[in-house]
Write a structure and sequence with these properties.
This protein is of the alpha+beta class and about 200 residues long. The chain has three helices and eight strands. The protein has one domain. Helices cover about 25% and strands about 30% of the residues. Strands 2, 4, 5, 6, 7 and 8 form a six-stranded antiparallel beta sheet that branches. Strands 1-3 form a two-stranded parallel sheet. The protein is elongated, with a radius of gyration of 22 Å.
Length: about 200
């Protein structure tokens, strides 16, 4: 093959490669857009938690580090409950990109404050130390698809004095994997799967 023809082919390949790189880069959300999406999803989840019980609160107590779902070691000895393994097939509409992003982000824990809106009325707590109020909520990091229109997250809450130590008189705790989608500018919970349920003392 003549050298000139080889050179032309290499130039074409380089141009195509550069074009694909630009397209892929443009499809990736910026850090600012990603943070905005995270803040929106957490805000929607907090609103859902606020309305979940008969004793709503205006101040959210949020676990200060993101939660990967490993609660087995914190269960009081006289509790009744369960902890389920995640089944991806239970979420038929979950995009592979969303699931991959969730797994990657939750390989370690992060300070949740970095991803919450500064306007949220909240107290950051650590159940292992200090004095807290009656109720807290925890979140994993959020997995997103490329267009930031689908989100996947693990949400947990706990009510009762035993949420802070095993000597407490009562605890009621639940965890859910939740799939959200953005519709008309608003995040909507589309699907949910139980992750754990704990009640102490046993009913």
């Amino acid at each position: 093959m003549p050298a000139k023809r080889v050179l032309v082919i290499l130039v074409i390949i380089a141009v195509i490669g550069a074009g694909l790189f630009v397209v892929l880069q443009n499809n990736q959300p910026t850090s600012a857009k990603l943070l905005k999406a995270e803040q929106e999803v957490y805000a929607a989840l907090l609103l859902d938690q606020k309305n979940a019980y008969n004793d709503p609160t205006d101040t959210f107590q949020i676990i200060e580090y993101t939660n990967s779902g490993e609660l087995r070691g914190n269960t009081p000895g006289d509790s009744a409950g369960y902890h389920l393994e995640f089944e991806v097939n239970d979420f038929p509409d979950l995009h592979q990109k969303t699931w991959n992003d969730y797994q990657e982000k939750n390989k370690e824990t992060y300070p949740i404050k970095e991803f919450l809106s500064p306007t949220e009325n909240m107290i950051l707590v650590n159940p292992a130390n200090g004095k807290q109020l009656y109720w807290w909520v925890s979140f994993s990091r959020i997995g997103f698809n490329s267009s930031l229109t689908q989100a996947f997250v693990l949400v947990g809450d706990c009510r009762g004095k035993a949420c802070y130590d095993s000597n407490g008189v009562f605890m009621y705790s639940q965890g859910f994997y939740e799939l959200l989608e953005k519709e008309n500018g608003k995040w909507i919970i589309k699907d949910q799967q139980d992750a754990w349920f704990i009640e102490a003392p046993s009913p």
